[in-house]
Design a protein that fits this description.
The chain is of the alpha+beta class. The chain is built from 16 helices and 18 strands. The chain is about 35% helix and about 25% strand. About 30% of the residues are buried. Bound molecules: zinc ion. Zinc ion binds near residues 21, 68 and 69.
């Protein structure tokens, strides 16, 4: 219910040149929850509109821009936003929800400050220190959310839970002129932060700067240099630009690599690309086309990496791709399968288990970095003929902690350190070639397997070379399993018809 005093205040503010929304936001304290705000406003609005019509028709037909919000909470501005061609950009995004924010000119802060001083003076019993008006941007959101939702055919969502943001920037032609008052009010010993926005006589006013000056100026000083209550503006705010931004989405999966001449990411040295393509590029080429996203908006991460000449087999290596500012965010099961099929045509790699994951889920890859284990198969070449005795030495060795000094081949990009790593199991078997044996090895993540085999000039100890007492090198290496249970495996039986 609106009290007699509230009616009097609204009526007074309308007389001064406030818009109806501003008049009403002065009735309430800002403690109200956002969800309660809607009800509060609509209730007050209905009551007041009816009553005000009865009381004084003339007040309702005023056409000036509001003396506090400069038109932000008036139909005029709302229509301008709804008619802005930039609003079409929102239709490129498939998210059915939207959140909205507004960038306001700093002179509104000045006007709000002025109005606050005035209402406290005029209605001291009502405007006590604990009763502050509802912030303008909250009322603005309530004011625009339904008309915007209808125009966009999307559902409004509060920004703290939303992913898709529409930011509206406003312009106010008299902004700089009105902010001149601040120049005089600025305390001598006070340096305004001069980072961005609002150039005035070489001085830059940020919103923060304006608020700082206002909080440091006495009421007397303010009233000397600024109108109180604020005067009726000559111009309305205008809608300068509408920008859209979507939070990143994350697509995860596993990849296998069948080539021994393929790096994981583009291999560039001194600006020269050394290989035609890479695991990452094969995926990005497909995804950027199928998602209509520039390649620059894609970021690749994986659970470790293999060398160019190492294949990655089995179920493959977990990876995820961050898509920045995505337009497409809704995927069906079949769409993911289509992306997989297209990537898999390359024959160099194969991807599987492609799916959307939450940002928080991508931590699994980092957490698994140390704890996960990996299975390898290495084809080892020996100087002498392989004997059963050599193989027995390996097979009987069991679990062992090795000390690995940073390998010579990676010293140029990794710091020199000695890292302990676990070899969890080993199994050596004969091959048809009497100078070769196959070594299956299960290691802690981060173990350099090639160095464990040949010893890296004694930088990795113990190593296979010293275990069997014979010079040994590695001819080929395959990762056959990365034991990280992420992302979830896809049930491909669901898509036999594809
Ligand atoms: Zn207003």
């Amino acid at each position: 219910m609106t009290t007699a005093e509230e009616k009097q205040i609204v009526s007074y503010l309308l007389d001064l040149g406030c818009c109806l929304n501003c008049s009403i936001r002065y009735l309430c304290d800002k403690q109200l929850e956002f969800s309660e705000l809607d009800d509060f406003l609509s209730q007050k609005l209905i009551i007041n509109e009816v009553e005000i019509k009865e009381e004084d028709q003339i007040k309702r037909v005023k056409n000036n821009a509001c003396i506090v919000c400069l038109g932000l909470l008036q139909d005029h501005m709302l229509q301008e936003i709804l008619n802005c061609p930039d609003l079409q950009k929102t239709q490129n995004y498939d998210n059915p929800m939207f959140s909205v924010s507004i960038s306001m000119p700093a002179s509104i802060l000045l006007r709000e400050h002025s109005m606050r001083l005035h209402v406290v003076e005029k209605f001291p019993a009502f405007f006590t220190d604990d009763k502050l008006e509802i912030p303008i941007n909250r009322v603005w959101k309530m004011f625009v959310k339904n008309p915007l939702a209808k125009t966009l055919n999307k559902t409004f969502q509060s920004s703290d839970i939303g992913d898709f943001f529409i930011n509206i920037t406003t312009d106010y032609i008299d902004d700089i002129e009105e902010l001149k008052a601040l120049q005089v009010m600025q305390p001598k010993d006070f340096q305004i932060r001069t980072t961005q926005h609002r150039k005035y006589h070489g001085e830059l006013f940020t919103r923060k700067g304006v608020l700082q000056i206002l909080s440091k100026s006495s009421e007397k000083l303010f009233r000397m240099h600024s109108a109180c209550p604020p005067t009726i503006p000559n111009n309305f705010l205008t809608c300068k630009a509408i920008e859209c931004k979507h939070n990143s989405i994350f697509i995860a999966g596993r990849y296998c690599k069948y080539s021994r001449e393929l790096s994981q990411s583009p291999w560039v040295v001194d600006g020269v690309k050394l290989m035609d393509t890479s695991v990452q590029e094969i995926m990005f080429d497909v995804i950027s086309i199928m998602l209509s996203t520039p390649v620059d908006n894609l970021k690749f991460s994986s659970s470790g990496r293999e060398d160019c000449d190492v294949r990655c087999l089995g179920k493959g290596r977990p990876f995820y791709i961050e898509i920045l500012d995505p337009k497409k965010t809704q995927f069906s099961f079949e769409e993911f399968r289509r992306i997989e099929n297209k990537v898999n045509k390359s024959e160099l790699i194969k991807i599987r288990d492609l799916q959307m994951v939450a940002r928080s889920d991508t931590n699994y890859i980092k957490q698994g970095e140390e704890s996960k284990t990996k299975n390898y198969v290495a084809l080892c070449v020996t100087k002498q003929k392989v004997t059963q005795e050599m193989l027995d030495k390996i097979n009987d060795y069991g679990e062992v902690e090795i000390q690995q000094k940073t390998p010579i081949r990676v010293l140029h990009r990794r710091p020199l350190a000695v890292r302990p790593r676990m070899i969890l199991s080993m199994k050596a078997t004969l091959t048809e070639n009497e100078h070769c044996f196959e070594l299956e090895v299960v290691t802690q993540a981060g173990t350099y397997v090639k160095e464990f085999v040949h010893g890296d000039f004694g930088r990795t100890r113990p190593n296979i070379n010293e275990i069997i007492g014979c010079d040994v090198d590695i001819a080929a290496l395959d990762v056959i399993s990365i034991n990280l249970d992420w992302p979830a495996e896809i049930d491909y039986n669901r898509c036999i018809q594809l």
